[in-house]
Amino acid sequence: MLAIELNNKKTINAWAIFDWANSAYALVISTAIFPGYFEEYTPKEIGLGPLTFSNSSLYSFAVSFSYIIIAILSPLLSGIADYSGRRKFFLKTFTLIGSLACTALFFFKGEPQLWLGTSAFILATIGFAGSLVFYDSYLPLIVSEDNYNKVSARGYTFGYVGSVILLIFILMMILKPEWFGLQGGQMGARIGFLLVGMWWLGFAQYTFKYMPPDKKNLFTTSMIMNGYKEIKGAFQRVKAIPDIRNFLTAFSFTARVYRLSFIWLLFLQKRNLVLLQVSWFCWYLFCNWWQSVELMFFLYWAIERVIKILS
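Above: the chain's sequence. Below: its structure in token form.
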């Protein structure tokens, strides 16, 4: 197998383009449009056998279930990515799952398609998170260590720009459907979900073309458990290195703050739509700022100071 050329500009751009592609899901589906759409076009009370709960509760359950599945799968996927060498195969697989699930949301009109919409949202979330495992695993293969931060920042930049461009277009279809010959904002949102899937899958083709090919390692059952074994070993190392423990604590806090945005948007939707729109934009900027490496290092420093004071 040919050696992989490090720091190749075309390869780096192809890697960053995947962030441009899949960030459309993160912004349109998980944050800006779909939560409000789900709240607006589903019954306020939903019955499931003897149980009755609100539509916002069902949405919360769907988010929780998605991330439980992701938490279970992530160690498994990381082990496969590291030991099988089949990164591109699984990157394509999860991209296909996520993008097709987004396009399926086009058919989600309301109560008659409630379970289609809920299932598609869960699959899109799993596809998004699963693809990130293999996407991130490419970084050490294509750039030298001194360029990790620079190339990672390029990916984030591509993701922000691409997702905002698509979001603005979708918002125009929702707020001004007559400009596009549409019958109401609901059709604009549905077409937006379809566009997210096409955007994600379409731009990902450039990434697939230029990422290094998979190794032809024989797949074995031992590869399945390697990710879980690595987690066990990582816990032991984290215990022995306080700096890493404090940094991971800071990262965990920022991630939890971001996940609250899923539910917070529905809370605002029930009270004031204008407040939702304004607050969502502020919240999105806030979350991305809070997820920055600089802030995580600040939180790490703060946690370290508190530990020293308490001890």
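Residues 241-311 form one domain.
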